[in-house]
Design goal:
Immunoglobulin-like, 3 domains
Length: 402
């Protein structure tokens, strides 16, 4: 009973709205649209009766303008501080004596066959009329700025990015101007705070952030309005890196742009770095080293592979001047713990000059077996004298490939 009564009450209201003698008239169409710029001719609408004999100058309400396209999603915007800013709810304008004269309406994305829909709402928010303008075409404008149209979000330290950054010459609406085939575009890291370096095809160079100090290795020529940078990588793991792009071509707007933040994560271990060992203090033959060997398992960028808790590192004597042995023999293999391998209780049973270790790296395969990787490193040399005290005599790490 209640539902039937509600239906009876609502039905006359809809009938009343449909029967109102109101017509929303598009007095002037929006014309000459360029991407990201205000229409050169802005639309004007007014409210009349259906026979257009009475202009409703006392009607209170607003007109809401929205956009429709048969194949893409794009929104109508309004120019604010030189930028075409859009809102999913459209652009609204209050009636002034029965008329609405829009100012600074704009569309960013160039395309054809847009339709602008104008809807009339009274002071109570009830839709009481509508009209539309079809076949609105938006053309590409003049070169105004450069912008990043593609860039990676997350990458691995020291590894070439699977997604190549692409930069484009754009109009105010961020449409690519494909007629540009001259001028240079350069890239460098924007204010790296941790010593991170940008690599080009595996070659690291210090990045000063000054355009005239950039080498040809990180500079390209525009091709059809775009430039694609290949072979890029960053070594040090950190969040929120940004790439700074700059061009030499004259533009009405900014000649540089920043990428969205790029997060560099530590990858799988690809190398070993000895960070502590018996060379760091005096050592007595036959006695446990005061500084036991500690190694970092590092990725291609030199970052500790903090997710590695399975790899093994084996230690053995590489240079053995006295034909000594390394004890205890059951302590010569260390398992990675968050990318760090620590040896314990090791000692050499005889004195000698220039002992040196070699560390070998074994990775856990999918079938549960360990595979020796083609990565090993020799430790820093250690020396002894006849009173069995070992001293540092070298500070370089030597890489041995087998």
């Amino acid at each position: 009973m209640g539902f039937k009564l509600l239906f009876v009450l609502i039905l006359p209201l809809f009938s009343l709205v449909d029967s109102w003698d109101i017509s929303l008239v598009l007095e002037r169409e929006a014309l000459y649209a360029v991407g990201g710029e205000a229409f050169r001719v802005q639309p004007e609408l007014s409210v009349w009766n259906k026979k257009k004999t009475n202009h409703y100058t006392n009607l209170e309400g607003k007109i809401v303008a929205t956009l429709r396209h048969p194949t893409i999603v794009e929104r109508l915007g309004i120019i604010s501080n030189g930028i075409c800013r859009t809102d999913e709810s459209g652009v609204s304008l209050m009636l002034d004596r029965g008329t609405a004269k829009f100012l600074d309406l704009c569309i960013n994305r160039s395309n054809e066959r847009y339709t602008i829909i104008f809807e009339l709402f009274d002071e109570f928010g009830i839709r009481i009329g509508s009209t539309e303008q079809s076949n609105v075409n938006v053309h590409i404008g003049n070169p105004y700025q450069i912008g990043v149209i593609r860039a990676p979000k997350v990458v691995i330290g020291g590894k070439v990015w699977p997604v190549n950054p692409v930069v484009a010459v754009q109009d105010r609406g961020q449409n690519t101007i494909d007629s540009i085939n001259h001028g240079n575009i350069s890239v460098y890291l924007a204010h790296p705070s941790n010593g991170g370096r940008l690599s080009f095809n595996g070659t690291y160079e210090e990045i000063a952030g000054i355009i005239d100090q950039l080498t040809n290795q990180r500079t390209m020529i525009w091709s059809n309005g775009t430039a694609q940078f290949e072979g890029l990588s960053i070594d040090v793991a950190q969040e929120r890196y940004q790439l700074n792009f700059s061009t030499t071509i004259p533009l009405d707007g900014p000649s540089f742009c920043l990428s969205d933040p790029i997060h560099v994560q530590a990858g799988e271990p690809e190398g070993l770095v000895e960070v502590e060992g018996p060379h760091m203090s005096s050592v007595h033959g036959g006695k446990t080293f005061a500084h036991q060997p500690v190694l970092h398992l590092v990725d291609a960028g030199g970052n500790i592979a903090i997710k590695d808790n399975t790899s093994l590192v084996k230690i053995s004597l590489y240079d053995n001047p006295s034909n000594a042995s390394l004890f205890p023999t059951d302590k010569t293999i260390a398992k990675a713990d968050a990318g760090v391998a620590r040896f314990r209780n090791l000692f050499i049973n005889a004195y000698g000059n220039r002992y040196r270790f070699i560390y070998e790296f074994f990775s856990l395969a999918d079938d549960g077996t360990y595979i020796r990787m083609n990565t090993s490193t020799t430790g820093k040399s250690i020396n002894s004298i006849y009173i069995n005290i070992f001293h540092i005599i070298a500070t370089h790490i030597y890489i041995v490939h087998r």
